[in-house]
Amino acid sequence: MSSPHLTSRRQLLSAAVAAPGLFHRPSRWWERATAPNDRITLGVIGCGIRGKNLLNNYFLRDDAFQVLAVCEVDATRREVRKKVVDEKYGNSDCATYVDHQDLLARDDIDAVVIATPDHWHAIQIIDACRAGKDIYAEKPLTLTLHESKVVIEAVNKHGVVFQTGSQQRTEWGGSFRRACELVRNGKIGDVQTVNVGVGPSPVWCDLPADEMEDGLDWNRWLGPAPMRPYSSVLSPRGMHGHYPAWRNYREYAGGSLADMGAHHFDIAQWGLGMDASGPIRVGPPENKESDFGASLVYANGTRLTHGGRSGTTFIGSNGILHIDRDRIASIPEAILEAGLGEEDTPLRSESNNAADWRDCIRDRSLPLCNAEVGARSAAICHLMNIAHWHDRELEWDPKSWQFTHDDEANTWLDYERREGYQLPKA
């Protein structure tokens, strides 16, 4: 069976028509696909720096989209984003919300962009699926293994067009795609090891309390996470130009390992052709004091290791290929110089994730970085973190999303959310 990423959009659309339950929508959505000049109406949930960049670099630049509303728990960021949207369209029509459910309740919004902190992703994704909205969600897609499984179920159940913000598959001049094409077409031989150089796992949050920021709904920023005093490290006051450090704390994210790992482990998954599966064994670092060295093993024996040079390094029986945002190199050099041959199979090419999502919304096809791709790449990060935290050899079943014969390990699949912020049913 061919990989879904070696399949054309036309083939995917034909499959959707043949199995309407997979991409079911009311008839007006199929009518939208035949009206290319009709704008896709958007709501943006999360107006921090990533929400800003998505708006400015993609969704306000593409006239196929029209932003109708923004949702943000910080009043300053919320109003600034409204102003930017209104200036773009020359009106004052952009609505503002604190609760994402109020935005999702609008019938005139077709799709949503989710750019909130990681601990909010799964709740908002499932709520958006239940509301029938197509979804563009930032990486890492989930905070836990259980969330990854439920997100896939929700997207499949409700038939929404879902794209994960894993831009390395589409941007950087196609260099990441090129690397994965070479690996998947056997140019380095059988892949034995993949090293992914990203930062360490997160720690529990022990930040001191700050004076509460005016205009911030701190209770809602925390959402499902435990109640704690306000910290400007987690939610910087007003407008800011950096990525906040909530990413370093277990209550809210998967640390540097998951932040860039959701990109570089994603490339490992793509290069190995494992977008619909995952490893079967989890191993802790040999050096118990090290922040690096955890590893995962796939059914064919390929080992994926946390550590090494920044980016993703594929080590095969006939060569080595390294890829990062600023470089691509091979040993021997002839691997890159020769490239693909006439008999080789290229991977699907898209200009950027937002444009791919737009086109897939119109023809109801499957985006390159669909929900399963995003959820399983996030799962790699979660498995690596578990290996670091618990220092145990574990067996993992990527089909059932369970650890095998280990009841204690299966208690690590999820966490207890705060009252009022439970994970919705798919």
Tell me about this structure.
- Strands 7, 8, 9, 10, 11, 12, 13 and 14 form an 8-stranded antiparallel beta sheet that branches.
- It contains 15 helices and 14 strands.
- It has 426 residues and is of the alpha/beta class.
- 35% of the residues lie in helices and 16% in strands.
- The chain is globular, with a radius of gyration of 21 Å.
- It has a domain of 166 residues: Rossmann fold, CATH 3.40.50.720.
- Helix 6 runs parallel beside helix 7.
- The N terminus is likely disordered.
- Strand 5, helix 7 and strand 6 form a beta-alpha-beta unit.
Mean pLDDT reading:
92
Tell me, what's the shape?
A: globular
Give the SSE string. Answer: HHEHEHEHEHEHEHEHHHEEEEEHHHEEH
For this structure, the CATH topology of the domain at 4-169 is Rossmann fold
CATH class category of the domain at 4-169? Alpha Beta
Number of separate strands? 14
Topology:
Elements: H1 9-18, H2 27-33, E1 40-45, H3 49-59, E2 65-71, H4 75-89, E3 95-97, H5 100-104, E4 111-114, H6 118-130, E5 134-137, H7 145-158, E6 162-164, H8 175-184, E7 191-197, H9 218-222, H10 255-259, H11 261-272, E8 281-283, E9 295-297, E10 303-316, E11 320-324, E12 327-331, H12 334-338, H13 353-363, H14 371-390, E13 394-397, E14 402-403, H15 407-410
Parallel strand pairs: 1-2, 1-4, 2-3, 4-5, 5-6
Antiparallel strand pairs: 7-10, 8-9, 8-13, 9-10, 10-11, 11-12, 13-14
